[in-house]
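Follow-up to my post from last week.
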Amino acid sequence: MEIMPIIKLYANLRKLAGTKEVSIPGASLEAVLSELVKRSPALERILLENGHIRPHVIITKNGHPTTDMNAPVIEEDEIAIFPPITGG
Amino acid sequence: MNGWNGKILEIDLATQTYKTYPLDMEMAYLFIGGRGLGARLLWDLVGPEVDPLAPENVLIFTNGPLTATGYQTSNRFSVTTKSPLTGTVLDANSGGFWGMQFKKTGYDVLIVRGKAQNPVWIEIKDSVVAFHDASDLWGMRVFALTEKLGQNNNKRNVLCIGPAGENLSRIAAIMNDRERAMARGGPGAVMGSKNLKAIVVEGSGRPEIDDKERFKFLLYETRKLLAASPLTSQALPEFGTVVLMNIMNNIGALATRNHQQTQFEGAEAISGEELTEKYLVKNAACWACPIGCTRISKTEKVEGEGPEFETTWAFGAQCGVDDLPAIIEVNSICNDLGLDTISAGSTIACAMELSEKGYLDSDLRFGRADLLARCVEDMAYRRDLGADMADGSLRMATKFGHPELSMSAKGMEFPAYDPRGMQGQGLLYATSNRGGCHMRGNMVGLEVLGLPKLIDRFQVQGKSSFVILNQNSNAAIDSLVVCKFTNMGVADEYFARVLSAVTGIQYATSEMIKVGERVWNLERLYNIREGFTRKDDTLPARLLTEAPVDGPSKGWVVQLEPMLKEYYRSRGWDENGVPKKQKLEELGLTNLM
Amino acid sequence: MVDPRIYEMFREIGRDLFTSNMISSHGGNLSIRLGDRVVIKRRGAMLGNLKPLDLIETRLDKNDSGVALASTELLVHRTVYLNTPALAIVHCHPRTAIAFSLSRDELVPIDNEASYLLKKIPVVTEEFASGTPAMANKVANALKNYKIIMLRGHGSFATGQTLDEAFHWSSTLEESCQIELATKIINEPFIEYRGMSESYNKF
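User reply:
Got it. Predicted complex:
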């Protein structure tokens, strides 16, 4: 069976993707992300740079920020993607 | 010497007289301006025998050598005083226009001493200082007063207190340019205790710049960097600071219901996304700022600046409230009353918990958005329970027998970040010289947002290094004074070079950070002189012993003890947190002891 | 033994330095500051293939156990930490940058990325270059005002809050020098595309 983790999108990613939440197949963060960008090409310029994650894009898996794109993903995982943000 | 005006204006309210004298340039070199210079002057002027609300306390308004030069965000200024909320040294700074205008009057520093017999307001037009009777203005709210005194952004700027400051609320802000706040630690109460309602400035001068060519180059580069950074060119202008709501909630570090939880089910409803979509009218910006993070938002009842992230959190998640229009409205009321929104919101949350647990008889309950407006009005006028809330959560909770329910350090209420999910933030709160705040340093960049690079938020070993660098760097930036958001696109090395170009004194990047370290140690010495000890570098028991039962921070409490020990050693302090002689010699502070 | 998370960070950056040709098999060095302590590579260890026991932890201000095994460059790293706000140091041997350092007193990038990030990289000279106090002082002094510097004919020293950051400056420098080298081969007139670049050498 295909693994379909839930991806939550935030800030301007929502407008660009036209949704707040999608289910995307993929067994690693990298696979999920490349499929996401394939489905919503408008996200590419925010998220990727020469095929790699752009600096300061924030990805959390089950609420834990990570920079390891090879991390495996299972069906129950909740992935959140934020464009570069700051505040205080 | 360029950049600085080289002049101090000192006003005595008791006699309604003033004098001017030269700024000690050796002092200026060592402490730059803003917060650093303010702390150094306070050291000489206000000793441990002075009560914060006594006439002997002073208000020291400072700008810095960069202020009004036109460098990006060179609009900020500081007020330094002994805090009526915490009893510590206090610096609060603000943006807008007033600081720039004050610099243009020809002074670097304004010291206000004594107490006026009757309410007064002060008007400074270049070198002319006038005292005006403010009897008919006493009682006025901030918005109406600001307009009445002739606020005109680029020409004439108004700084004042509202009813909260007049009624000596220990969480009262000083407001400038209508809706900018020097909020934390109760500087508004000090101004109220002096019977001083407002200070209006009009200036026509311009600071001299030493190396104009180099300055022009750095201005150009800074513009380029701010435009290139997605943080300063997209995130802040598009969503404002409230954009942090969802990420902090996502990682389980959004303090909720007086820190009883670390995630709020209503976070989405009070997020930056929601604010932008439904209530944002337009952006606004401070003087010389290309970022423009200020929101102008509108509900059926109000239209005005804000709310910022911390405000939205304080009246939102911390009070269990997911009603964004109610939060926008209470923010506006706080600005009009002159109240610190973080402390006000968190004090209400504390009262809500006291009430729910039966320690306090009131109708306050988590989620009661309908009561927020009444609460802040009561605080500002010291009505009913408001009389207790007006002095902040620690004094209130102590009165009702449960000081442990005040979510504060040294008596200052925390901002939104729950440190159980950010260990470094916990150390920051515990060691902050003005109490629980996120402006003496903030670990959200390193521990959550990956700015400049992501580090492990639960790691304890080595955390003190990051915290110390953050605190030193922020103290330096607060002494220039520029906006910390500039730092999101422009590294410290640019600030050091701009400082050198403007003043003609060559500050290497590490020397500028050293100024920050000097300021930090001086503030520490001040607090030690006030009687603060190692035991004050701590956090409420809840954060040290009660681990969240669910969410991504599940099972974590702040591991303060090992971090604090490492912190003292790395700072060059002894095991009691007292700076060692060798450190003071290195920083040129031995003459103070 | 140091925290496994710290080891993992060293291992990743060490591997990347080696695979990106920034060091030879036994060259280069990494360290981080942890409060009042330093973690640094053991003498003779290979950065491209670090094992947990290859990392030594010692005091910042003086020697304690284990220090005999530490890299000969420990003194340089300590001096940098005591004189700058650095929390991490990457020392490597970027080949093209070293080549340019042999004929220049400063490297001023012409490519976009390094123009943004570095502006200018000073070159310092030290005759007795390996771990002497003179070299330590010279390197630390230059790093007070620049986040990355070149030691002539030897290599780069970069500082940051994390190893990741210091590595970023190092690889940006080498990329920039490779681009400049390529322009030497192409040998056509340079078309300026940046504003105020004539001021870079004053940065």
